[in-house]
Design goal:
about 300 residues, mainly beta, eight-stranded antiparallel β-sheet, 16 strands, about 35% strand, binds 2-acetamido-2-deoxy-beta-D-glucopyranose
Length: about 300
């Protein structure tokens, strides 16, 4: 991949949003961010740790339990970003997830990044998925162009009323479009929390469940830092996050479509890294879901 083709426009848009004064948006700049100001532990407090300076967070999984955290706030539309370093070595069966979700009920909306561990030396798989009102089945799977266990890499979600874009280090790996038809499968009504967690999924995750978690290697630890949110923070009872007000950068044209260099990058990802796409799975979907007919290039 050529570095020159990296999406500069996205970066500019991002900076613009960052410096534009906007009372609805919350932004947390690097360094000044405290875990407890922004997150709660969901379960297994004793499986959570931070670095001494509080800037790096560790979630661990052992035979007893995994662990997870979630934002205190909910958001509707914006930019969500985190640096993750995944469990190294033999991580088969272990899933680290980084996702947005409206609540835990059966009618939930959800946008997922899931990192499926593997045997030592075998590639991690990223699975992404989208749910609306409890209906998912929109999986894509990618391999990466680097080893995600060696260093921190940035995983981000851009969300507005036109598209959801999944980014890895500023490279868009997936675009999920709003068809804007009634009853479509684009989550755009419910505000969502941001979550992350680690758990044992050796019944399905690695080679379809054939590879089991080897508990001799426990605890399995994934690391996090630099959470950034530049988004509309939801406030009950009156929702301020209305996409018809175009003062937010993510509600403007440049954030509704990819830039030219982002399109190039997405094309490269599509040719080289996609290992599963539900929109190509006509065995599973004899009639493909309608969003599959919208080009991510438009
Ligand atoms: C794990 O490695 C195997 C062998 O290379 C590969 O087929 C598989 O897709 C990888 N990932 C998962 C999650 O099974």
């Amino acid at each position: 991949m050529e570095m020159g083709a990296l999406p500069k426009a996205m970066f500019l848009i991002f900076l613009l949003g960052f410096f534009m004064p906007c009372f609805q948006a919350t932004d947390s700049s690097e360094g000044s961010f405290s875990f407890s100001d922004n997150f709660d532990i969901m379960w297994a407090e004793d499986h959570f740790k931070t670095s001494e300076d509080g800037q790096v967070w560790y979630l661990s999984l052992d035979k007893n339990t995994g662990c997870g955290f979630q934002t205190k706030q909910r958001y509707r539309f914006g930019w969500f970003s985190m640096k993750l370093k995944l469990v190294g070595g033999d991580s088969a069966g272990v899933v680290t997830a980084y996702y947005m979700c409206s609540d835990t009920g059966p009618e939930r909306d959800e946008v997922d990044f899931e990192f499926l561990g593997n045997r030592t030396g075998q590639p991690y798989t990223i699975q992404t998925n989208v749910y609306k009102s409890g209906v998912g089945g929109r999986e894509m799977r990618h391999i990466l162009w680097f080893d995600p266990t060696e260093d921190f890499h940035t995983f981000s979600i851009l969300w507005n009323n036109h598209q959801l874009v999944f980014f890895v280090d500023k490279v868009p790996i997936r675009v999920y479009k709003n068809t804007e038809n009634p009853n479509d499968f684009f989550p755009n009504e419910k505000p969502m929390y941001m979550y992350s967690s680690i758990w044992n999924a050796d019944d399905w995750a690695t080679r379809g469940g054939l590879e089991k978690t080897d508990w001799k290697n426990a605890p399995f630890v994934s690391s996090y830092k630099d959470f950034k949110v530049d988004a509309c923070q939801w406030e009950d009872p009156y929702p301020p996050c209305v996409s018809t007000t175009t003062q937010n950068w993510w509600d403007q044209y440049d954030a509704w479509v990819l830039s030219d260099s982002q399109k190039e990058d997405l094309g490269w990802v599509g040719r080289n890294l996609v290992i599963y796409d539900y929109c190509k799975d006509t065995e599973r979907y004899p009639k493909l879901p309608e969003e599959c007919s919208i080009s991510p290039w438009e």
